[in-house]
Each structure stands twice: as C-alpha cells, then as structure tokens.
C-alpha cells in the first residue's frame, strides 16, 4: 500500500527533523508530507532542507496560519492527487509516537473485514495518556463521552488525530461540506465516516504530552468544538452510504 504520512506543523522547528527520522526509521517505505503554515520559527525552511536531502520528504507550504482542519484537508487532497492508497495523519510533537505506525497500518491490511479507517487510540485496552494533568484528562474524557453520546460514534477515541484512512474513504466523503476549521474537525470527519458506514478500527497508543514547543489549544477552541458537535447533531450531514457508492461503481 502506497502510504503518505501527513504532519501539520505550526512552530515545530525542534520536532520536525527528529520526527521525520523516527517515522522513516519505523516505516521506511512511506512518504512524508509536512503541511506548514508559514511557521514564524522557520519550520518550513527546515523541512525544505530535509526534503531536498530525502526524496520521501515533501513540504506543502501555506501562506499563513489557516488552522489544523484545513491543513488535514490539504494533506488528504495531496494524498488523493498523488495516487496514495493510505493517508495517515499525526501530530509533529511526538504525542503520536512513530513506533505505533506499523500496528496502525497493519490494521488496514487484515484479511477479513479489515477496517477502512484505523485510529491510534488512547481509550482502548493498552492505550493511555502520559504527563497529562487532571484537567486535561477530564477534558479529553468528557469530549469523547459527549461526542459518542450525541453523535452515536462507536470509536472509543473520537478526538484522536492519529489516524490512517484508506484514500477511497477520503474520496467518498463530502469533505467540502466540513465546516470545522479547528480541533473539532476530527470529530466531524469521524462522523462522516460513521454516517457513510465505513469500518473503524482502533489500536492502542500511549499519548505523551509534547516534549518541545508550546501548546496551541485554547478555551475558545474547546468551546467551538462543543458547539460543533451540537451543530452536527442538529443538522445531520448528508452522506451517501458506502454500500450505495459501491453498487453504483
Ligand atoms: N499547519 C498547521 N498545523 C497546526 C496548526 N495548529 C496546530 N498545528 C499542528 O497540529 C498538531 C497538533 O497541534 P498541538 O498544538 O500539538 O495540539 P494539541 O496536541 O492538542 O496540544 P499541545 O500538544 O498541548 O500543544 C501539531 O503538529 C501542530 O504543529 C495550524 O494552524 N496549521
Ligand atoms: Mg500536541
């Protein structure tokens, strides 16, 4: 399976190179795309140098901070346009440890009834979080409970950004309809996956708090994410079921 790993970056100059090395050591056959929003700390320039030295590394340089959601969308689009079979998304700050990549990808390759989307999950047996205070733990637990209850999602970790998608899923979903631009983007995508009837699998990960650089999550983002779930509940997106799409093809 031709696999593209998409890493959105905003001010990750300390993480980009060690992360690229760790990813390519864990799964040497993948390609790597950094989606950088003109980070003031020079992450983009650094990645440009890495890309010049290794043909597996690519940079999508955007003009300014356009948000995590649209960075993911740009990464999906790149994966679709360049003929990849699988697109993985992960954070740049080592919270999503590259050592889990083989298990995440293997999940998509299982013979019978293999999932279409795999999640690196904190909330299945064997998974967890490290170095998080009580506040952050409760917030994450609540966000998951809230999204699962209101939207009927079955995954245990609905807010995780560590995911592998078959590109046929991304091609099928009405990604242009997504209105979230921030953190709730992930819940919105998972809801579309769920409504289309794609299969979702989870593999445990231990999520570690960022080693370097500053956190970017804000109260405003949290509030907006909560409202997004209500909006999705209120006005359910129209999604063609995957079975219908297959029989039409
Ligand atoms: N391209 C792009 N990347 C972003 C943007 N916001 C965040 N990111 C990246 O998205 C990933 C997740 O962001 P984080 O700041 O680590 O979010 P978090 O894990 O919820 O919070 P902390 O780790 O506590 O900061 C990281 O790789 C960031 O560099 C953005 O606006 N544009
Ligand atoms: Mg982080």
If you had to describe this structure to a student in words, what would you say it looks like?
This protein has 249 residues and is of the alpha/beta class. The chain has one domain (3-248): Spore Coat Polysaccharide Biosynthesis Protein SpsA, Chain A. It has helices at residues 16-26, 43-53, 68-81, 101-109, 134-151, 167-172, 185-196, 219-234, 242-248, and strands spanning 3-9, 31-36, 57-61, 86-89, 117-121, 128-130, 163-166, 200-204, 206-208. A seven-stranded mixed beta sheet has the order 3-2-1-4-7-5-8, with helices on both faces. The protein has a two-stranded parallel sheet with strand order 6-9. Helix 5 runs parallel beside helix 8 (219-234). The longest helix has 18 residues, at 134-151. The model has no long low-confidence stretch (mean pLDDT 93). Bound molecules: guanosine-5'-triphosphate and magnesium ion (MG). Guanosine-5'-triphosphate binds next to strand 1, strand 2 and helix 3.
TL;DR of this structure?
The protein is an alpha/beta fold and 249 residues long. It is 42% helix and 17% strand.
